[in-house]
Design a protein that fits this description.
heterodimer; A: mainly alpha; 8 helices; 86% helix; elongated; B: alpha/beta
Chain lengths: 253, 265
């Protein structure tokens, strides 16, 4: 069902309040270090396989597509450069974040949503625990800290996938591919490529927690919240990517 | 003059445009159990949520141990909630934690020593008769066992006030009886103040007509018989968000009010 403008503004306000409460309570006691570590393992280690596969095949396909275009200019040797820059600046952060949004965002929304409809969140509050500190903060911190790591893995696997295609399909030597890739990358590319997952991680974690914590309507509501979390996170990641890319490019000219 | 441990003054609560509670006032004194009865949707559970601060009244004040809690924020409510334990309608156990972790939740949060937590968890599980279930998960427990674990979780820090939100709903008569006996024992042996919400009159009258004494190595339960008002319990009947009766069970049973008669029938 489409949101009315008033409801949309209310949603943005609620997400902003949740973000402010979460970030405001990071340094307040008690600190749930164990919960943060558990979430880091779930989000980071748990997402590795899917991100590695996605990165590898994206790199491989990207290599095939760019080499086709580059061959018209007789510049197939520059495939490594184009693939590396595209992956590190853009595809690595966005694809890794979208994969994590699908896998982790849905998990966060459904877990918190289920806890809400079974009154576990109320029980937690009744027992004197702030659910934002106990449930939201560990998930936000874990996603923010693990997404850049996952992005690096996605980048590396993408370049490896490109190398695989270059060597076995395009007959480009590994040295040429890797040298072009290495020479094309600048520190600002790496900085931009790691800044994006920080922002995307915070966005997807906050949005997913918000969707989970405002679940209503029993198990059907949990399903609805889960879908909304993935859709909203994915759209916001892509929208924020445009703005971040514009800002990063403005500073790297 | 004896001060009430819990006082609700002229509380009004709206959900959307409907007044769920409309000027509700009552007092609960130390060691007393207030039984709130009423039809579904009459605002019974809402009162409990307002008392423990899970929701806020739109008007009126709620005093817990003399302190107005209606103006407190989530952080300030933490110390108030330490005085209150609550048993939720569907138990609301944390399904990812074991019985030990559920019952000892508050102690783990407070950073209490592991050995002390274990001892206190075993003690309170012993009180509800579930010491053997300490390492089980909530999914391995029956409905009645879940309610007893929820009761143990609420009792672990020995709160002054216990709130029971239909703790016997959906349970068979034998299990309901066990839960009721635990609540009677808490009231009479440990002097815990209680607010008991239900629409099951049989459970309500069990609480109002039976009392517990400490026997040799076991708690004994007796009925009031001819001795009236031994059980420290008073009724409060809600209808459309308003209190239409407050008093002991003897007066409730003799009421000539048509709605009350139909409700008790």
């Amino acid at each position: 069902m489409p949101l009315s403008p008033k409801a949309a503004i209310k949603e943005v306000q609620d997400v902003s309040f949740l973000a402010a409460r979460a970030f405001g309570s990071i340094f307040r006691r008690p600190h749930y270090v164990r919960d943060i570590l558990i979430q880091m393992e779930l989000i980071g280690v748990g997402s590795l396989a899917v991100v590695m596969l996605t990165g590898f095949f994206t790199g491989a396909v990207l290599t095939l597509q760019t080499s086709k275009t580059l061959s018209t200019f007789g510049a197939v040797g520059y495939t490594g450069a184009l693939v590396a820059v595209s992956l590190v600046r853009e595809l690595g952060p966005v694809l890794a974040s979208l994969m994590v949004a699908g896998r982790v965002g849905s998990g966060i929304a459904s877990e918190l949503g289920s806890m809400l409809v079974t009154e576990q969140i109320n029980a937690m509050r009744a027992l004197g625990t702030d659910p934002v500190k106990k449930l939201v903060v560990p998930r936000v911190l874990a996603t923010i800290s693990m997404l850049p790591v996952i992005t690096i893995v996605a980048d590396a696997m993408g370049i490896l996938g490109g190398l695989f295609t270059s060597v076995f399909v395009l007959n480009i030597t590994p040295n040429l591919y890797l040298n072009r890739a290495w020479d094309s990358l600048r520190y600002m590319d790496l900085f931009g490529g790691l800044l994006k997952p920080l922002v995307f991680g915070a966005t997807l974690a906050i949005v997913s927690c918000h969707c989970g914590l405002r679940t209503y309507g029993g198990t059907q509501g949990v399903g609805r919240s889960t879908t909304q979390a993935v859709v909203a996170s994915s759209i916001l990641i892509i929208v924020f990517d445009l703005f971040l890319t514009r800002i990063i490019l403005a500073y790297t000219r | 003059m004896i001060q009430p441990i819990l006082e609700v003054r002229d509380v009004v609560k709206y959900y959307e445009d409907k007044a769920v509670l409309n000027g509700v006032s009552f007092r609960v004194f130390k060691g007393e159990t207030k039984i709130i009865i009423g039809a579904s949707g009459s605002g019974k559970s809402t009162i409990l949520k307002l008392i423990i601060g899970l929701d806020r009244p739109d008007e009126g004040t709620i005093l817990v141990d003399g302190e107005d809690i209606t103006k407190l924020d989530e952080q300030q409510m933490v110390h108030v909630r330490k005085k209150i334990g609550m048993v939720f309608q569907e138990s609301a156990l944390f399904d990812s934690l074991s019985v030990r972790e559920n019952v000892g939740y508050r102690l783990y949060e407070e950073g209490v020593d592991e050995q002390e937590i274990d001892a206190r968890v075993r003690q309170v599980l012993g009180f509800v008769g579930l010491e053997d279930a300490i390492d089980k998960r909530p999914s391995e427990l029956s409905g009645g066992m879940k309610r007893r674990v929820a009761l143990a979780r609420a009792l672990i820090t020995e709160p002054q006030i216990m709130l029971y939100d239909e703790p016997t709903a959906g349970l068979d008569p034998i299990t309901s009886r066990k839960i009721n006996e635990l609540i009677i024992a808490l009231r009479d042996i440990k002097s815990v103040t209680g607010v008991f919400v239900t629409h099951r009159m049989r459970d309500a009258f069990t609480l109002a007509t039976e009392y517990a004494t400490n026997g040799d190595h076991e708690i004994k339960f007796h009925t009031e018989d001819n001795f009236i008002c031994i059980a420290n319990t008073r009724f409060l009947l809600l209808r459309d968000g308003k209190i239409i009766f407050e008093g002991p069970d003897e007066v409730l049973r003799k009421s000539e009010d048509e709605y009350i008669k139909r409700f008790l029938a």
